[in-house]
Amino acid sequence: MRLGGRTIGIITVLFVVWGCRSDDTPLQYGDGEYVSQNPDVVSATADVADSGPSVPDVPNSPWDVGGRATDSGALDTADGLPDVVSTGPDTVADAIVVADSGPDVVEVIEQGPVPDLRVATWNLRNFSDYGPNDYRIGAIAAKIKELSPDVIALQELRSQEGTDGTGDQAFDVLLSQLPEYDGTHVAWDPFDTSVGIMYRTDVVSLVSKKTIFPSDSWAFPRPPLVANLTAVRDGASIDFQVVVIHLKAYDDSADRRKEACEKLYAWLDVQPDSHHILMGDFNDDPHDVPKDNVFLGTFLGMEPHYYFVTDVFPPKTVTSIGWYHYVDGDYVKGQFIDHAIVQGDLMELYETVTPTIAGVLPNKFDDWGDEYSDHFPVYVDFLAPEQPEP
Which CATH superfamily is domain 65-96+107-348+355-380 in? Predict the structure, then answer.
């Protein structure tokens, strides 16, 4: 089943009450719908329209996406790749479009079979002021093993309080407890947290990485990390890009989040590749009324150009337990602020795309917060179409 405007598609959505799921129940798919073997799991499907509002052409981004460069190897990580700070449109060696002999002609390289993928995001809440001594490291490592994402975007990474970031940090110790994974992060910020990424090395390779908008602290107080990745599984492969997001919090910063979405949209629109996944803590709710909705005009309602995958969860969904929100006058403990946005060309390659929130019921919120974080992991399963027998 193809998505992206030429065929009506279905995004399959899985959630338990309060938008949470915490087990490892095997998934069964049939005709684009999820069938659960767990009576406690609620399943739903949401039709995706085959057309959407017109998408404006953005030939060149009007915003500065860089302004400075860092020394090679600015990230204190072991991936062997230098950190590149963007000073213009991205150049990706594995782009799927290459120039032909004519100035206005392009040759589209045929995409072969694609692998199943699980891509996740998790805000780890100040991970960690306590550095390698944070008591949560073991529990967080165990939860990541349980969820087994191929890629996980991480927010609120930081160096130990009172240090300059040298030496082992909580992120390094977490990686040491997950031998299947490698990872990288944006350079430590003594005044704020940073974002990062981890990936399974038996499936995913990090081709290149960069930090974007490093000097735009108004829209991006935590600069996004762009990771260009290749996934290979069972003979199928795909090149894709994960952009790790952590936008400014609080109601009085909605204008900053809206500006960040506009700048991200314009930046992505001039990139040569098109398999983008935006994951992270957006600190805003796609169900907000239009006058307060920071996603309108960029990523929300922009099918087939972009799919706001987590928008299909109901308004009372919770991904963060640190605050509250109201839905039709009803008080809801927690907020719906951690999201996934997928570019349309990537959606077209997959049979189903299933977002899941790996959380707990409200009576367990406090225990979860003590053990892990004030956010739940959110992950998206990309299920590839079956290939015909040779």
Answer: Endonuclease/exonuclease/phosphatase (3.60.10.10)
